[in-house]
Write a structure and sequence with these properties.
- This protein has 320 residues and is of the alpha/beta class.
- The protein has helices at residues 16-28, 42-51, 59-78, 93-96, 99-102, 118-127, 169-182, 199-205, 212-228, 287-296, and strands spanning 7-10, 83-87, 106-111, 132-137, 155-159, 188-194, 237-244, 249-256, 260-264, 267-271, 276-283, 300-306, 312-318.
- It has an 8-stranded mixed sheet with strand order 1-4-3-2-5-6-13-12, sandwiched between helices. Strands 7-8-11 form a 3-stranded antiparallel sheet. Strands 9-10 form a two-stranded antiparallel ribbon.
- Bound molecules: N,N,N-trimethyl-histidine.
- Residues 51, 59, 161-163, 165-166, 206, 213, 280, 282 line the site of N,N,N-trimethyl-histidine.
């Protein structure tokens, strides 16, 4: 069998200048914040992979066990031979495990930069020579125009890992509406989401005993130092995270251990002792609220699979 050549398409990359302006504005705002997308530099991506190995971080492991246990049912719901569009594909490992069951005609891994995808797609193309692979560089959280190279037939958006938790419920709804519009009448969405559970388990998952999540959070400052030419000293900051029950979300912050002044290209700010930079929200859902959100966005025929403790849920939703 001949291996199909994979192709890569990079769509509108934000300029470094835009990036810096956006970051600077977030840091200068009264309640300072930085987007969680800045966690994932080379080291941050490795730290996130380490988080997924932690005993406290049940999310990825539980999701994988659901896919393993119900792969047959999931494939039956989804159907074979479609277009698998993998949002935030990274190393493409989660989607690759679905290939034997879903047998997609085309695989479209999407990530901010195609540079993150090249190696993984190259390897995968060798293992699955008959699947047409098109890597897309695209910030799908802001826009979702798919190039003509992405087939229209049975588009399945794959959004695992509870990454949807980084959106507020309002933004998640808007995002689902865009997915719904982009997937055509015969398409759908396969998504993993973290469920509400006793706060003690949620808090442990985002503040592990080894301190890997703390390192992951603090590493954002090292990334900002490079992106902005900033002079954050990570020894002056601490990781703070907790479950906000009223808002049903984990909140993560970097908190100044004492009064500090930070300078960067085109900006400067003093932080008082205890002042925080908000770095992430990770929303948790009830099964009913999440299914309702999908329905509000126009999806139907929703099937769902969970682990025995109902800690995590995988949903398949149809466009019509
Ligand atoms: C990749 C957004 C799903 O919210 O659980 C892990 C990121 N942050 N530990 C999550 C994360 C801290 C993760 N998501």
């Amino acid at each position: 069998m001949t291996t199909k050549p994979s192709e890569f398409i990079q769509l509108h990359h934000a300029s470094d200048q835009q990036l810096r302006a956006e970051l600077s504005a977030g840091l200068l705002t009264a309640s300072a914040y930085a987007s969680p997308k800045y966690f994932y530099d080379a080291l941050g991506s490795k730290l996130f992979a380490a988080i997924c190995e932690l005993p406290e971080y049940y999310l990825s492991r539980t999701e994988a066990s659901i896919f393993d246990a119900y792969l047959g049912e999931i494939a039956e719901a989804v159907g074979v031979g479609g277009t698998l569009i993998d949002l935030g594909a990274g190393n493409c490992a989660k989607a690759a495990r679905l290939f034997p069951a879903l047998q997609p005609a085309q695989y479209v891994p999407v990530d901010i930069s195609i540079d993150f995808l090249r190696d993984a797609v190259g390897d995968l193309q060798q293992r699955f020579p008959h699947i047409q692979m098109t890597g897309l560089g695209l910030d799908f959280s802001s826009a979702l125009q798919l190039p003509d190279r992405v087939q229209l037939n049975k588009r399945l958006f794959f959004y695992p890992g509870s990454s949807i938790g980084n959106f507020t419920p309002d933004d998640a709804l808007a995002f689902f509406r865009r997915l719904h519009a982009a997937c055509g009448d015969d398409g759908g969405l396969l998504i993993g989401v973290d469920l509400i559970k006793a706060p003690v388990f949620l808090n442990a998952a985002y503040d592990d005993a080894l301190g890997v999540t703390a390192s992951f959070n603090l590493n954002l400052l090292l990334h900002l130092n490079r992106l902005l030419g900033a002079d954050f000293n990570i020894a002056e900051w601490r990781h703070v995270s907790f479950f906000n029950t009223a808002q049903s979300r984990i909140e993560m912050y970097l908190e100044a251990r004492h009064a500090v002044t930070v300078k960067w290209q085109g900006g400067e700010r003093g932080f008082q002792q205890g002042e925080r930079i908000h770095t992430e929200n990770s929303y948790k859902y009830t099964t009913d609220d999440f299914v309702q959100l999908l329905q509000q966005a126009g999806f139907g025929g929703i099937r769902r699979w969970s682990d025995a403790d109902d800690w995590f849920m995988v949903c398949h939703a149809r466009a019509t």
